[in-house]
Amino acid sequence: MAGRLASLAVLLTSLALLASSCGGDDNELILGATTSIQDTGLLDEIVRAFEGVTDYHVKPSVGGSGEVLAQARRGELDINMTHSPADEDKFIADGEGLDKRPIMRNFFLIAGPEADPAEVRDAGSMSEAFKRIAGTQSAFISRGDQSGTNIRELSIWDQLGIAPEGQPWYQESSTGQGQNLVVASDKDAYTLVDSSTFTVFEKRVGLRALLTDTEKPNVYSVIRVASDKHQNVNATGAIAFAEFSTSPAGQCVIGDFGMEEYGKSLFEPAARCPSANVGG
Amino acid sequence: MSDPLLHLQDIVVEHARRRILEVPSLNVLPNEVLAVVGPNGAGKSTLLRVIGQLERPSRGRVLFGGRPISGNPLPFRRRMAFVFQEPLLLDTSVEGNVGSGLSLRGVPNDERQRRVEEWTARFGIAGLRRRTARTLSGGEAQRTSLARAMVLEPEILLLDEPFSSLDAPTRESLIDDLDAVLTTNRVATVFVTHDRTEALRLGDRIAVLMGGTVRQLGTAAQVFSSPIDGEVAAFVGVETIIPGRIRDASRGLAAVAVGDNTIEAATELEPGADVLVCLRPEEVIVSGLADAMPMSARNHLRTIVKRVRPAGPYIRLELEAGFTLVAHITKQSLEELALSPGSNAVASFKATAVHLIPHRPG
Amino acid sequence: MDLIWDGVTEALRLIFNGDSYVYEVTFTSLLVSGSATLIALVLGLSIASFLAFRAPPGRTLALSAFNAGMALPPVAVGLLVSIMLWRTGPLGQLHLLYSRTAIVIAQAVIATPVVAALSTAALQGLNPNLRLQVLALGASRWQAALLLFREARISLLAAAMAGFGAAISEVGATIMVGGNIKGSTRTLTSAIVLEVGQGDFETAIALSFILLAVILLLVTLFTVLQQRRPPE
Question: What's the complex ipTM?
Answer without folding.
Answer: 0.82
